Amino acid sequence: MRFNNGAFTTPPVVKNLIIINALFFLAEVILPNGLGDLLIDKLGLYPWQSPNFRLYQLITHMFLHGGIAHLFMNMFALWMFGRTLEYDMGSKRFLIYYMITGIGAGLLQMGVSWIEISRLQAAAHEMGAMTPYMQSMIAARANVVTIGASGAVFGVLLAFGMMYPNAMIMLLIPPIPIKAKYFVIGYGLLELSLGVTGAQSGVAHFAHVGGMIFGFFLLYYWKKKGKITAMTGDGVNDAPSIKSADIGVGMGITGTDVTKNVADMVLSDDNFATIVGAVAEGRRIYDNIRKAIGFLLASNMSEVLGVFFSALLGFTLLNPVHLLFINLITDCFPALALGLEPAEPDTMHRPPRDSRDTIFSGGLGVDIVYQGLLVTVLTLTSYIIGHCMEVGYFEMPVGVSPHGMTMAFLTMNMCEIFHSFNMRSQRQSVFKLPGHNKVLWAAMIGALAITTAVLEVPAIAALFNFTPVGWGEYGIALGLAVLVIPIVELVKACQRAADRKRYCKVK
User: Rounded distance, CA 324 to CA 327, Å?
Assistant: First the structure.
């Protein structure tokens, strides 16, 4: 319910549906010379075997009623539950939902009528002749007309129970409170039971069930499509809708404390334009989380794969203390710096991501695998080169090669330092990104300085069992490590070309 200057208002679709139904009922009552009955005869829903059936009746039957009590109960339920749904869904979607559930209710009722008429015809066939009695029974069943908005209203009731399962509903008889989810389930089972047993004749119970069934599948379809619902408001009456929405937005100035407490986002200035800035910031943060995770997983994968393949080849790539150093120094600080990366230029030009997407969607998982393998190959190559320079000729290392281990440590460290710059963007070239991440530069220089100190300071190098490396070996390790940038840039270029080709095909 919404309040405006002390008086509640009803959203347009619910209000207009109530008015249209009331006008149709008024026409049924006041039209002279049996025209009211003719209205029901032409617009009510007949079984499809009936000569009176018309396709438009699937829609028109929803606006006719059999009495003032019938009209009141349906419109009261529509007013009670439909207002909240329309504010939550939006007027257009609510109208679509209402009409589809009403049509679905009519289709199920027609299906039940077809089964009943078919059974009567089969019984007459078994008797060998169509007796006048059987003819009258079939004709009577074929001319049963279905009217009322109950099917659509039951669809509305189901949607309320699914979207607000814990909302309390006060029953009239008996006057006890019950949660919406239990009320909907119980009412649905009751209607199904009455329809199957035929305990209450003259009521289209299967139409009620049909509205609920079609409503359930329609809501499920919308949910599977990843539709996201946002709700804004400032009053206590808006709190249930804000809480149930995927994104609840409360007003910071005019909003009540209740609304602020249940909202996912509070606009401190009550300016909707602020939401755009919030979306941009949210996308930047999400992108940076993916960058940090991608960098850390690719780095750790290279360490795991390096140790694994070296063990298969019969030599020790790195000791545990070396891996611990790489994780704590080389990986940690660049990953933290990636969290401070500014937004990419196309951040607000991308379509919204699917809510079902995982953190590894968009090819991030594939990127992690090939980048981890790339660093592994470069590190193993450096180890073999270092060992060959130590012995003076080419041979595959066996056991522990201090020179090779030192080269591998240096290469893996610098590979991951340089690779952190690749992770500034998953698809864009790092050479075309505007601005610089000063924190990332500081992390790179700091990690490189610490790594060099570990190799060059004799006391520290002895603790790590490293051997001194010359400028030539240092240059080789640096050259191998730098290769991670052009190789990843080449892969990015191929990925961008593939994305453009795929986009053109879709268009």
Answer: 5
